[in-house]
């Protein structure tokens, strides 16, 4: 009877020691994780943390066994099976179905109590715990993707996301292809044409930033659907508008929609790829941008020159073939929208936001689809649970006067904008700050030179065409024509000191024809159209003009005696430069897009072997060196060859930069950071277009030196980036 109280005291003492030991162990683990976080600075983690946990558990079990040996059996103490074991690591009965442990939700949403100092300490502890959870989840997720394998599901996703990327490639070429025809329908002056290209790029810049941020909040799939819907809708509407202002507005919104495609597509696809496949297959999907360029060139070649593909409603509404081309170019976006309805959300995004069940079901679908395609449908998905990071509670404070729906909507909208802005600022905080600035410089260097030369090459080739065209100008001096009817086209001619008496010009066209010091007496002009045609120091005596486009500005220092102008042709009173060969323009764009194919293949095969950094730096430096050969481009064939060479060399840098930008940032910041970097490249493209376009009229040397120096400096800067080849996708 006297031994009872001492045994109870011994049991209580042992229990207190166990509790103290467990508290000390958990505290050491948290401190160790915090130290690791500071030292590693967001580098890829290995399995050391799991090994430490196992060592701690082994030590606890050994300690428990030793205590029981010394003190004997204790009915009140914990059993060997549970001593030193974390309850959160246990696997319970329903976990094989993808249902998370019932206590995990409570553990992931612990409130922070205490005063100001307690709140700060609690927030830091939560951040440290969340960081540790994310690192564990990254390791487990990579192993899960390895078990799911690479097969039919990834290839189906490859096609669907490729269509979205193809829509982006088409958008780049649409404006350049429709301008020669649209400028006549919409009465676009040379000074106004530049706004169209700039607004499209500015729209892409805005869309990249906005939808990149939404991709980390709403999800990859939903944000991509919104982007494509905006692009497809306003691209379709732009084919019907009749005014230039309305056309600009529609193309601006279309650019905003397509701007968010690139950052979301790459992040979306990367999160379904294991690191052993990521570099190669992200490079393969870049080929759809090339396919978009080929598709746009082929459709322009087949549709725009055929003006029979048009109709007219009354005298005002005209629907010409270039509008049909704009509708056809919206098809990739529409096809991608339809296909995306059958594709699930990124499971990595769902896990990041604590949606374990949905993520598990998607990963199981990936596994079952791939195994069935390989002929092994009996294989079971063995992953039962994946670690989800601690969720940080976010509260939206709605005041009592926020009773109407639009006020509530505004509060939620402002809150989402604030969350996106916080995520954006975190990209410029350690340890991401330095790498973000490095990537900005490399993206800007490549985009400035690439898009600038994209404008410069066609303009230089066009100048060479004009020089060759004018060298073949036919000159007629002091000709005398009387009583003759001109009902055919006059092209590339110079008539000087001529006399035209009682002649008729009926249903004809003047193309690049100039009359100097000539006399027109008793002549009749009817239903005449003209391009680049002028009358200089000419005299018109008793001459009638009926239904012509010979407007006043085409008569330079000319004199009219008893002459009459009746019924000018309707439309723009602007003389457009002649499009020497529409087929030739489309063919050159087709060759430039096709030249990207070898670079795509090389980058896909060597991305994982050489590494992302070497691929980026080497491609940029070689592209810069190739620009020096532009000094020797004195013919059309030479310039076309140099264009193809430059495109083929630079595409590897685009591919590698995209892979680096995906792998450099964690999941909750991936599309925000990538969207911002893509926005920087679009802004650099605008400046590149302006500067290189101006250099066409100044000197070829400026363009060569500018492109070469910017590309080489960008390549050298890229070599200072950390290589992400073997980094676990955080």
UniProtKB/TrEMBL annotation:
State the annotated membrane topology for this chain: Multi-pass membrane protein
- Superkingdom of source: Eukaryota
Write down the SUPFAM superfamilies for this protein, in alphabetical order: MFS general substrate transporter, Pentapeptide repeat-like
Q: Where is the composition biased (Acidic residues)?
A: 67-78
InterPro entries noted in UniProt? LD_SV2, MFS_dom, MFS_sugar_transport-like, MFS_trans_sf, Sugar_transporter_CS, SV2
Pfam families the record matches: LD_SV2, Sugar_tr
Q: State what protein this is by name.
A: Major facilitator superfamily (MFS) profile domain-containing protein
Per the similarity annotation, which family is this?
A: Belongs to the major facilitator superfamily.
In which organism is this protein found? Eptatretus burgeri (Inshore hagfish)
Record domain Major facilitator superfamily (MFS) profile: where: 157-725
Biological processes, Gene Ontology terms: chemical synaptic transmission; neurotransmitter transport
Question: From start to end residue, where is composition biased (Basic and acidic residues)?
Answer: 33-50
Q: Where is this region: Disordered?
A: 31-88
Gene3D superfamilies named among the record's database cross-references: E3 ubiquitin-protein ligase SopA, MFS general substrate transporter like domains
Keyword check for Methyltransferase, yes or no: no
Give the GO cellular component terms, alphabetically: synaptic vesicle membrane
**Annotated localization:** Cytoplasmic vesicle, Secretory vesicle, Synaptic vesicle membrane
């Amino acid at each position: 009877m006297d031994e009872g109280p001492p045994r109870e005291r011994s049991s209580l003492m042992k229990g207190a020691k166990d509790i103290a030991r467990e508290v000390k162990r958990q505290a050491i683990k948290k401190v160790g994780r915090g130290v690791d976080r500071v030292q590693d600075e967001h580098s890829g983690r290995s399995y050391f943390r799991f090994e430490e946990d196992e060592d701690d558990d082994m030590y606890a079990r050994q300690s428990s066994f030793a205590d029981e040996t010394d003190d004997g059996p204790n009915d009140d103490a914990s059993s060997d099976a549970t001593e030193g074991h974390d309850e959160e690591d246990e696997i319970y009965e329903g976990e094989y179905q993808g249902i998370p442990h019932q206590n995990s939700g409570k553990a992931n949403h612990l409130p922070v109590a205490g005063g100001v100092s307690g709140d700060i300490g609690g927030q830091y502890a939560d951040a440290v715990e969340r960081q540790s959870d994310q690192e564990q989840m990254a390791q487990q997720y990579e192993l899960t993707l390895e078990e799911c394998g690479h097969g039919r599901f990834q290839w189906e996703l490859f096609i669907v996301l490729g269509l979205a990327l193809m829509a982006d490639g088409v958008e780049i070429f649409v404006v350049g292809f429709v301008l020669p025809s649209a400028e006549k329908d919409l009465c676009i002056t040379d000074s106004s044409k530049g706004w169209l290209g700039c607004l499209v790029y500015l729209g892409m810049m805005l869309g990249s930033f906005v939808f990149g941020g939404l991709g980390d909040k709403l999800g990859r799939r939903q944000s991509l659907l919104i982007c494509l819907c905006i692009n497809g809708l306003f691209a379709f509407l732009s084919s019907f508008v009749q005014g230039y202002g309305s056309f600009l507005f529609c193309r601006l919104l279309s650019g905003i929609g397509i701007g968010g495609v690139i950052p979301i597509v790459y992040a979306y696809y990367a999160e379904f790829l294991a690191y052993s496949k990521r570099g190669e297959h992200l490079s393969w999907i870049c080929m759809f941008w090339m396919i978009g360029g080929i598709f746009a060139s082929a459709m322009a070649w087949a549709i725009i020159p055929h003006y029979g593909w048009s109709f007219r409603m009354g005298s005002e509404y005209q629907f010409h073939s270039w509008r049909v081309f704009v509708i056809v170019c919206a098809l990739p976006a529409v096809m991608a929208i339809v296909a995306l309805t059958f594709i699930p959300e990124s499971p990595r995004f769902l896990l990041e936001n604590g949606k374990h069940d949905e993520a598990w079901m998607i990963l199981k679908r990936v596994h079952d689809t791939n195994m069935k395609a390989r002929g092994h449908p009996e294989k079971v998905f063995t992953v039962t649970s994946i670690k989800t990071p601690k969720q940080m509670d976010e509260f939206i404070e709605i005041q009592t006067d926020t009773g109407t729906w639009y006020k509530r909507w505004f509060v939620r909208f402002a809150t989402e904008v604030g969350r996106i802005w916080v995520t954006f600022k975190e990209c410029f905080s350690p340890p991401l700050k330095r790498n973000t600035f490095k990537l900005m410089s490399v993206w800007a260097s490549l985009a400035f030179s690439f898009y600038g030369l994209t404008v410069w090459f066609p303009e230089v080739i066009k100048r060479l065409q004009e020089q060759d065209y004018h060298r073949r100008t036919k000159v007629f001096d002091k000709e005398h024509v009387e009583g003759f009817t001109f009902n055919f086209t006059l092209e590339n001619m110079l008539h000087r000191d001529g006399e035209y008496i009682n002649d008729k010009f009926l249903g004809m066209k003047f193309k690049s024809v100039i009359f100097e010091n000539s006399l027109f007496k008793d002549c009749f002009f009817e239903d005449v159209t003209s391009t680049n045609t002028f009358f200089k120091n000419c005299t018109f005596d008793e001459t009638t003009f009926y239904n012509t486009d010979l407007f006043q500005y085409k008569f330079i220092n000319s004199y009219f005696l008893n002459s009459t102008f009746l019924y000018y042709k309707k439309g723009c009173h602007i003389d457009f430069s002649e499009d020497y060969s529409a087929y030739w323009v489309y063919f050159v764009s087709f060759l430039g897009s096709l030249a990207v194919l070898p670079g795509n293949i090389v980058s896909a095969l060597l991305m994982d072997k050489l590494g992302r950094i070497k691929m980026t730096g080497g491609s940029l430096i070689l592209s810069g060196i190739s620009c020096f050969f532009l000094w020797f481009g004195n013919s059309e064939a030479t310039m076309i060859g140099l264009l193809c060479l430059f495109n083929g060399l630079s595409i590897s840098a685009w591919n590698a930069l995209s892979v680096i930008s995906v792998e450099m940032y964690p999941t909750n910041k991936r599309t925000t950071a990538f969207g911002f970097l893509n926005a920087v490249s679009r802004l650099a493209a605008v400046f590149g277009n302006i500067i290189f376009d101006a250099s066409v009229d100044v000197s070829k040397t400026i363009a060569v030196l500018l492109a070469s120096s910017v590309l080489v400096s960008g390549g050298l800067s890229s070599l200072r980036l950390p290589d992400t080849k073997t980094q676990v996708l955080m």
